[in-house]
Design a protein that fits this description.
Residues 1-24 are annotated as: Disordered. With 274 residues, the chain is of the alpha+beta class. The chain has one domain. The radius of gyration is 17 Å and the shape is globular. The protein is built from 7 helices and 9 strands, in the order αααβαβαββαβββββα.
Length: 274
């Protein structure tokens, strides 16, 4: 289920990328029930029109970092992308605020003790309300979408919110490795697992670092044909937070995609430092 509609990003205008992700639209909306703030939706074919009316979201520094991350993503074959505009970011924030206020009364979670931890990770860097940028990307060979989301922390309150999110992710993976969801008379099994990092430093305590986890959703009947997977890497470095994610076919949660996500994160962080 999607608790919010993802705004249409701007079509890209840099490098060899020439259009919105051709595969982003095929990701079933039902997965967004459990992917929550990750969303990971691709650009629509009409994204260019909105891009002409609103500039890309973020300062030059953050946009440059997103472009660097996208350049690394393109080295893995993700050759289409869409950058969020200022209007799209505002729409995203408004819709998330509304969905969080309304709650999720039409979804049953078992065990019930996992309902709160699951809801607690419904958060994204764009919600910090400060300087933020995002680009979604895709390719013809991956049924799904990737995204890079960057935000600059402004003040102790935003720093606490980012740190709390990292703690919420760790708590969810540790306490709720498997959850059963019921929505609209359909039963799903949601599995969470910690991701093993090879390059990035895992977050420890209240410091900087990365929290990474994968999520997969299947029908409770045991049929794997409809499996949808996601992998999320959330990194804090100084006053910057970077979230790189993939959502779509089962391969999205594989080690291969972890390697790509780490490389994209590193390129993004290096650009922020520069």
């Amino acid at each position: 289920m999607s608790r919010h509609h993802t705004p249409t990003p701007e079509a890209p205008h840099t490098g060899p990328r020439t259009g919105p992700p051709s595969r982003g639209a095929v990701v079933p909306a039902a997965l967004l029930t459990v992917v929550l703030a990750l969303s990971g939706c691709g650009a629509d074919e009409g994204a260019g029109e909105e891009g002409e009316q609103s500039p890309r979201a973020g300062t030059e520094r953050l946009i440059g970092a997103a472009e660097a991350g996208m350049e690394r993503a393109s080295s893995f074959g993700f050759d289409s992308a869409g950058f969020y505009t200022e209007a799209a970011v505002e729409e995203f924030r408004d819709q998330m605020e509304g969905s969080l206020a309304e709650g999720e009364a039409d979804v049953d979670v078992e065990p019930a003790s996992c309902e709160e931890p699951l809801a607690a990770v419904d958060w994204a860097p764009l919600l910090l309300g400060s300087d933020a940028a995002r680009v979604d990307f895709g390719s013809e060979t991956f049924t799904g979408t990737g995204s890079i989301e960057i935000a600059e922390i402004d003040g102790e309150d935003e720093a606490s919110r980012a740190q709390e999110h990292m703690g919420h992710v760790q708590a969810l993976v540790e306490s709720c490795p498997e959850v059963r969801l019921t929505q609209l008379d359909a039963d799903y099994v949601l599995a969470m697992d910690e991701v093993s990092l090879e390059t990035l430093e895992p977050a420890r305590g209240q410091g900087e670092g990365t929290v990474a986890y994968s999520r997969s959703r299947t029908l409770a009947e045991g049929e794997d044909d409809g499996m949808i997977a996601a992998q999320i890497l959330f990194t804090r470095q100084g006053d910057d937070v970077v979230m790189v994610s993939f959502i779509g076919e089962p391969a999205a949660s594989s080690q291969e995609f972890t390697t790509m996500a780490e490389a994209i994160t590193v390129s993004t962080l290096e650009a922020l430092e520069g």
